[in-house]
């Protein structure tokens, strides 16, 4: 398998080279300037296999620690990252191009998730009593959640700390060891995370980073890990699933999105515009849960467009202190953005901010399009750039219908004073924020993931902890059974007793009581 296993299939940042010592390497470059950030080894199949073997050996120690002991290590790591947040922010800034304040925000959210996973794993995954029911009343029943063993994580470049940490921290808290393949565009961030965790656990390979290109990710898929968590494009997610199927390795897929923000006629227009602008433009639009489409009630459409156009004044991409948006991290994505914008304009859309000329070589200036045909790629495909497509709708029924018409179902937002939650519940997506933007990502107790071609499985919250475990059910006999049902010595009296109990429990009128 030759295609990359990162956010989008593309060539590596630079061609791999083989130095005199025979170790193949690749370079990490600053996307804003092209300057060299670091040189990293390309892990081949044998390197990946060795990393998984080391992780399996380490799992014998890490998995047998108590929840409290693992929590202590994770909370120490949390503190290390917090104290060195400036260092990690600078590295993320250099590898992704995002402004340092945005990098700090991402890391702060990730830190909060590490703490939540560490503190809640015991309650969520530890032994819990389960009612045995009248038929099995002599049994004490419990369920607990056991670690799978070794978890592979393939991370993206757009949020190189927050996104993979949703798998890494929760898998570690559940008792697994992790082999992490960071994106080829942000390998330094991945190595930094693994090295700081190694400091906490005395060098034991509980969390390892393996760097490389697409073939390295492919090797991790077929390496025999017990589960693989992937974040990237839908197309690459399908390749990941196919590769993992060779060993029947289960997967968590967090794929693409084409999220919409719905604005009702009673919405706070200024706040809705502010949210749409942030959701569409922050991180240069390179956010899987960001806003790409906006559906506005026709009664407030003109007011909304005027407001967001005014708010967009002065917002620009660049490297100077006044710029709020960084470069496009992956060079090949520039052509995708250009194509979507041009397609919309060719089909009759209007550019009220930016336009075709806003797409440069490294930077894309904010672009807002209105009256964009629903058949254009700016509506149907993930753009992953600082663009917004804003269309009027007759009512909220049309807004929901158009939102749900796409193949993706990751996230979204609704602005409405009276009907926000009602509208949110009708949207086919894994997550929706009401009168806010991307707020669900900052709540560690909520599950994170999508439906449809946005993927499946969940990270974050109790669901995220359980995602990296298997359920272990145990029954223990407390006293001899009144009915001897599971024996060849079962009598007619036992059978009549069972029929009587089942009839009393289930033969009467329907009831909603448990």
TrEMBL record:
Residues forming the catalytic site: 254, 288
Keywords: Oxidoreductase
Keyword Endoplasmic reticulum: no
TM helices/strands, residue ranges: none
InterPro entries, per the entry: Ald_DH/histidinol_DH, Ald_DH_C, Ald_DH_N, Aldehyde_DH_dom, Aldehyde_DH_NAD(P)
Top-level taxon in the UniProt lineage: Bacteria
Keyword Transferase included in the entry's annotation: no
UniProt domain Aldehyde dehydrogenase: residue ranges: 20-474
Pfam families: Aldedh
Residue numbers spanned by region Disordered: 1-21
An MF annotation (GO) of this entry: oxidoreductase activity, acting on the aldehyde or oxo group of donors, NAD or NADP as acceptor
Signal peptide from the UniProt entry: none
GO BP terms in the entry: aldehyde metabolic process
PANTHER family: ALDEHYDE DEHYDROGENASE-RELATED
Record family assignment: Belongs to the aldehyde dehydrogenase family.
Identification of the protein by name: Aldehyde dehydrogenase
UniProt organism field: Aeromicrobium erythreum
């Amino acid at each position: 398998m030759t295609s990359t296993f990162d956010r989008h299939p593309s060539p590596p940042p630079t061609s791999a080279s083989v130095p005199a010592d025979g170790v193949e390497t690749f370079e990490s470059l600053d996307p804003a300037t092209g300057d060299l950030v670091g040189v990293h080894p390309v892990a081949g199949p044998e390197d990946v296999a060795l990393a998984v073997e080391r992780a399996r050996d380490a799992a014998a120690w890490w998995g047998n620690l108590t929840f409290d002991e693992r929590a202590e290590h994770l909370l120490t790591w949390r503190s290390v990252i917090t104290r060195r947040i400036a260092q990690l922010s600078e590295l993320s800034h250099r590898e992704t191009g995002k402004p340092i304040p945005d990098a700090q925000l991402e890391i702060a959210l990730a830190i909060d998730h590490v703490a939540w996973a560490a503190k809640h794993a015991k309650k969520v995954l530890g032994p819990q009593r389960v009612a045995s029911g009248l038929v099995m009343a002599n049994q004490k029943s419990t369920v607990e959640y056991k670690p799978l063993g070794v978890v592979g994580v393939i991370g993206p470049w757009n949020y190189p700390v927050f996104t993979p940490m949703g798998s890494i921290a929760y898998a570690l808290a559940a008792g697994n060891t992790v082999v992490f393949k960071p994106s080829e565009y942000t390998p330094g961030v991945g190595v930094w995370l693994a090295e700081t965790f190694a400091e906490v656990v005395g060098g034991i390979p509980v969390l390892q980073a393996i760097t490389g290109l697409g073939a390295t990710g492919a090797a991790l898929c077929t390496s025999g890990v017990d589960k693989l968590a992937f974040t990237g494009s839908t197309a690459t997610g399908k390749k990941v699933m196919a590769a993992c199927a060779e060993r029947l390795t289960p997967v968590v897929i967090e794929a693409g999105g084409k999220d919409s923000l719905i604005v009702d006629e009673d919405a706070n227009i200024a706040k809705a515009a502010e949210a749409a602008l942030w959701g569409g433009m922050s991180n240069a639009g390179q956010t899987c849960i960001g806003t790409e489409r906006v559906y506005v009630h026709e009664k407030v459409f003109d007011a909304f467009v005027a407001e967001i156009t005014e708010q967009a004044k002065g917002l620009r991409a660049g490297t100077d202190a006044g710029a709020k948006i960084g470069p496009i991290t992956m060079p090949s994505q520039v052509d995708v953005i250009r194509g979507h914008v041009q397609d919309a304009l060719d089909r009759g859309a209007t550019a009220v901010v930016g336009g075709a000329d806003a797409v440069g070589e490294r930077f894309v200036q904010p672009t807002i399009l209105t009256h964009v045909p629903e058949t254009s790629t700016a509506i149907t495909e993930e753009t992953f750039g600082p663009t917004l497509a804003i269309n009027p709708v007759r009512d909220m029924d049309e807004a929901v219908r158009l939102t749900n018409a796409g193949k993706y179902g990751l996230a979204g937002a609704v602005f409405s004073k009276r009907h926000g939650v009602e509208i949110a519940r009708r949207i086919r997506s894994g997550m929706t924020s009401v009168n806010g933007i991307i707020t669900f990502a900052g709540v560690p107790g909520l599950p994170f993931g999508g439906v449809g071609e946005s993927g499946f499985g969940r990270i974050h919250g109790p669901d995220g902890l359980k995602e990296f475990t298997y359920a272990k059910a145990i029954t223990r006999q407390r006293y001899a059974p009144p009915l001897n049902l599971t024996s060849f010595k079962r009598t007619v009296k036992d059978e009549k007793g069972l029929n009587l109990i089942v009839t009393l429990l289930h033969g009467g009128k329907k009831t909603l009581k448990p």
